[in-house]
Amino acid sequence: MATVTRTLSDLEQTTDFTRRHIGPDAEQTQAMLSDLGVNSIEELITQTVPDSIRLDDALAMDDSLTEADALVYLRSLADQNKVNKTYIGMGYSNTLVPNVILRNVMENPAWYTAYTPYQPEIAQGRLEALLNYQQVVMDLTGMDLANASMLDEATAAAEAMTLCKRSNRKKSDIFFVADDVHPQTIDVIKTRAEYFGFEVVVGNPLTDLDNCDAFGVQLQYPGTYGDISDIKSLIEKAKDQKAMVAVAADPLALVLLKSPGELGADVVLGSSQRFGVPMGFGGPHAAFFAASEKLKRSVPGRIIGVSIDTNGKPALRMAMQTREQHIRREKATSNICTSQALLANMASFYCVYHGPQGLKTIAERVHRLTAILANGLKAKGIAVNDTYFDTLTLTLPETAADVYQRALDAGCNLRQTAANKLGITLDETTRPADIAQLLDVVLGEDHGLSVADLDAEIVAGADTGIAAEMRREDAILTHATFNSYHSETDMLRYMKKLENKDYSLVHGMIPLGSCTMKLNATAEMIPVTWPEFSSIHPFAPADQVQGYHKMLSLLEEQLVEITGYDKVSLQPNSGASGEYAGLLAIRKYQESIGEGHRNVCLIPSSAHGTNPASAAMMDMKIIVTACDDKGNVDVADLRAKAEQHKDDLSCLMITYPSTHGVYEEDIVEICDLIHKNGGQVYMDGANMNAQVGISKPGVIGSDVSHLNLHKTFAIPHGGGGPGMGPIGVKSHLAPFLASHKVSPVEGLNPDNGAVAATPYGSASILPITWMYNLMLGKSGLKKSTQMAILNANYMTEKLAEHYPVLYRGRNNKVAHECIVDIRPLKEASGVTEEDIAKRLMDYGFHAPTMSFPVAGTLMIEPTESESKAEIDRFVEAMAQIRQEVEKVQSGQWPADNNPLCRAPHTQADIMSANWDRPYSREEAVFPNTATRENKFWPTSNRIDNVYGDRNFICSCPAIETYMDN
Ligand SMILES: *Cc1c(COP(=O)(O)O)cnc(C)c1O
């Protein structure tokens, strides 16, 4: 008999997810440890992480599950959700995600693993899709410009309110909200208004608008109960009082209705969810935001704009970036950073695929079915609204409870809006048979009506709920892009054409410091599109979402254990939104103990721009504290400022490990110092990848943190969103977490204002983090952190042979990222950090984070998922680029004609007949063997930002612009 050497557990190794998640294998790990001169990973961690914050105990979590077992487990929870037919409405509709988009965009890592398009030369694909999105929004809303998505409709409305205040000189603090705005939107508006000191007046615009004296007005079109009010006269009334008007609108209704722009609105916003994005129990979906030309410098969020590259060829990039928090900080128009790019892309592809005719047919069909239902009900004496697009509010002779229950028994969710009123909202998925079923449910079975007869009456001229003067007359989506790709073959190729222009994790490392671009494992992504998670309305009855609640509470438990906090809120749907929610909890808590006057927020100068932007939204007084020359918070300065403001100190916002990528030794003392001066500690948890399993913010001494699940916890970046930014808090802050008026969060006062449109934010991407935590388990989570630190330190040592490393912590170690300083090189050679970033594209890499948190530097984060081989490939590219800089410095290449300042290079460059450069074509595009074997081609030359801002265009350019080139 043959000798057996391996045990069963050895043989089971292949099922272990941790070794798939982590890039380096045992051999590579050993090689890196030896290089660093340490014997074990534990030794490296002891050298790197301060004793005062290092955990002794393992996480109290289960061991890892295999991919297969974790999926079976999650399946068992998904099966406890019930997918009913949804007629609830309120801004969420069922939709048919075109399968070609589902598989090739939503489920495609080339789309979902890309980063925000800060490097536009390798992002022209998603920039085009986002520009299409803006065009759709501009056409439907009738406005001059649109941004490329907001987090959700409710927060978009809150942003519209602050935009109105900023842009309106009128002396008023009143914001008027129509009482037929969706209730969750009113909830979020009220939360946001409180600290700006605005008074929110909710009323009937027909009667209460007259002398409301508001600076701004929010309307809904059609209203939450279905009516299409005459917003033209309402807008005129508001304008007579010098109030600005924001209109929340339904994009499918806008296909048939006159645009709010034509009717005089200043801002139009809404959700593009029903354009082919699943409801997902609340998200993620893209909200839209459109405004008139005069407001262009004040619009929140990111706008994609048209510019040109160095060859004069049209090229896209994010416009007017100086408005962003990174630069404007507390003066930024909003704190929104991560938004909903992937979902905006899906919605825009939905419009490209259907085209204007297709959209019109969908809208007409939904409306026809609504009219059939309305006329049938009216014929039987049930009152419904006179005007409608897709939503009816039924007034029943007696209680609505029976009908509501009959509907449930038939597998249908209706909306009960009053004791005798029911709402029914139809959508793209509604079939004629569903109308027959609804008539049965409401009228009982022998009503004698037929859908065909009712339809015939409409064709013969019966009433249909949209007044002739409210019908749209202008054309939409006339651009060629929306009239070219209506077969699946054409659509598939169009999307592939765009995909091919974009660099994502499927191509190579995206070493963006502070952004943690790690593996987004397929097993983590699979559950997102299970119908039991994706086809659920956010306000579905509780007994239909038991599986969701079990998944969410297990996730909360995991995050409580990982962070060392007492309670977690899953509502905020971005990191910045988490910051806002955390500061809100702090201020509410301070009010509850009679210290509501505390409004000073200390923020170290190294902080991410969202920190001051969020504090500004809470009307806090921001005091910036200094950093020392090692990149640490200057404790003496912090102490002085904390003491100086001790009577008004609300909190400190501090990132840990610091945005400089080091573990500050003094963090425990810093937390103490703030508490002693009456303040709370907000720890920005975006860098949790350097803490999970080896330290905990709650144990270090902070009171609240947000976690960027789209960084540390494996939710993909989506090319600029979605994300999730849940917050963890200590018990004293727990009673002040965000709840929700429509669907209160268990254990919280429903009057705690909401910070997002739905109670669990973008709930349908939470299974990603759930899977991540379960498949890694306590040891895999810890090992991931250890390996992130090992990779970063190995990379730092290798890079240090070629570039100065700006900051290091104890024992010369860094945390999970490092900053290389390009300033000395720039001084000596004229080569800039941007030249290096663009040259990296020629080498097949996405650039690191540029000039944050220190101008003139590159911040590089490899994460645990990159192998030693990939890190080596990156280091070699950086080393070779250093050699190229040398040639510029020595004068071998002129300062204005070298592969660095002319990077990136395109195929057109090297095919051009006149090659006027002192370096070869080969040096330009195949600088090393790796690129010869596997080349990623940038599709644009360097893009001119200034030109684009001076000639601001955010709509699809006319087709001739492309033909000229
Ligand atoms: C990414 C990041 C944020 C903001 O997160 P978003 O999800 O983009 O809003 C805040 N702070 C730090 C340090 C970050 O890296």
UniProtKB/TrEMBL annotation:
Residues 784-905 form the Glycine dehydrogenase C-terminal domain. One of its GO terms (biological process) is glycine decarboxylation via glycine cleavage system. Residues 19-441, 481-733 form the Glycine cleavage system P-protein N-terminal domain. Its EC number is 1.4.4.2. It holds the Pfam family GDC-P. The modification N6-(pyridoxal phosphate)lysine is found at K711. InterPro entries: GcvP, GDC-P_C, GDC-P_N, GDC_P, PyrdxlP-dep_Trfase, PyrdxlP-dep_Trfase_major, PyrdxlP-dep_Trfase_small. Keywords: Oxidoreductase, Pyridoxal phosphate. GO terms for cellular component: cytosol; glycine cleavage complex. The glycine cleavage system catalyzes the degradation of glycine. The P protein binds the alpha-amino group of glycine through its pyridoxal phosphate cofactor; CO(2) is released and the remaining methylamine moiety is then transferred to the lipoamide cofactor of the H protein. Belongs to the GcvP family. This is Glycine dehydrogenase (decarboxylating). It comes from Amphritea japonica ATCC BAA-1530.
